[in-house]
Amino acid sequence: MKLIHTFLNICLVCCCITATLASCSKDDDHKQDYNPLIDDPKPEEPTKPDEPVPSSSYNEQYRPQIHFTPAKNWMNDPNGMVYADGNYHLFYQYNPQGNDWGNMSWGHATSTDLMHWTEQPVALTRDELGDIFSGSAVIDKNNTAGFGANAMVALYTSAGSDGKQQQSIAFSTDGGKNFTRYTGNPVIKNDDDNLRDPKVFWHEASKQWIMALAKGWKMGVEFYASPDLKSWQHQSTFFVPLAGRPSLQWECPDLIQMGNKWVLLVSVNPGGPILGSGMMYFVGQFDGKEFKADGAEGTTPVEPQWLDYGMDNYAGVTWSNTGDRHIMIGWMNNWSYAGAVPCSPWRSAMTLPRELKLIEHDGKYLLCAPVVSEIDKIAGTWTTRHSVSPDGEAIDAKNAYQLRLTLNLDKNTTVAISNDHDEQFTFDVDATTRSLTAHRTSATGKSFGTFSIPSLRAPLNVTGTSVTIDLFVDQSSVELLTGDGTMSMTNLVFPASIYNHLKVVGAGCEVQYRPLNRIWQ
Question: Is 287 a catalytic site residue?
């Protein structure tokens, strides 16, 4: 039966991938990519930003204990992330009315340490220009917009019922508690539904604000420039055709300077690493007007790289106003099944924050995404085992934990974490190819629709004779990374209880684990 079940899972995934590729025959025909969550939302009445913040015990089944979730209702993309006056502001796509996509507003949470979050009142709700789609926020230190020195300026997509996606701004002079919409909105007018998710930063070399805008189904990124956040001029368009993925949405861009290089993050849906949505990036140069990916002038087609090889890290962008640190957080879900995940009264969580670092590996640039060092603030004491018995190792952790494995690369290894309900999450390390393959199937826990993925493969991107792998295990997720973040794989799981037993078969292995304390007060 196991063989038959595995075969059926493989067939299901293959059919879904085939259907995705088959849907790309016409650039203007996306009927087969219809998503009822987005394309046919239920009409709802707007809500007021000053409504009370919902409450929760945060003890429900599958409720993350170390990841941010709203107390109740639907959440997706992180938005407007900015650091100001000792607080990390996390705005996010939010439905104040229910647990499905719709009535898009900006939810709001704050943290002083990137770990413990306080949910704030809803910051922005839809208006006459439409729903409040994704965007960013900046601190206007020099009062270029005239809203006041150090005003917090939010830039977002107004998504109208007429199909127009236009760019608008709002400002706050009280630290993000209240926003005033600019009377001249929209600041960038548009006539279709393929221009969204403004990510803005100050470009010091050209003394102007730069905005990156995704082109949705038209694919690509548009760059605009402004002296004052209100008047914008188009500068250039970046687009690279993706082999085998001729029709997909480009969303949530983020252009980041890292040393003498620039990195452009782009989220795509469908067309992720395996199925549904995913995050890719390009490395190149930016001169204040145009981004050019490395290799764009050569004869070999430019190929993006995946930031995360799992199923559930999407729409990730970085906080602004953080100095030399590039801190990112992503939506821990996938548009292939986002509306079906078995979570109530909330739906969706954010990843753990990651600190992006650009290195050179094997002759090319590689964007690393390790979990931020602030994780130590919620961590207990390490337990160390220099080997694992054939019967495995019990893990004493109630809420969440970090598991660190240092594996020799002289032979192949299989690792399994399991619970008392005979549910397990497994992955294999191939010593020859230096790759990792994880398995999320019905054996992992609750499964539904396209959730079961028999094989998720990723390069380890390491040298030497061993590899260190960190697993951050919560009630409904496993974030698997190499120790320095050269490989990242983020996956939702829905076991009946947290995995609390480890088994390793294959190469020699040193094991460390430590509990991660619940972040909810």
Answer: no
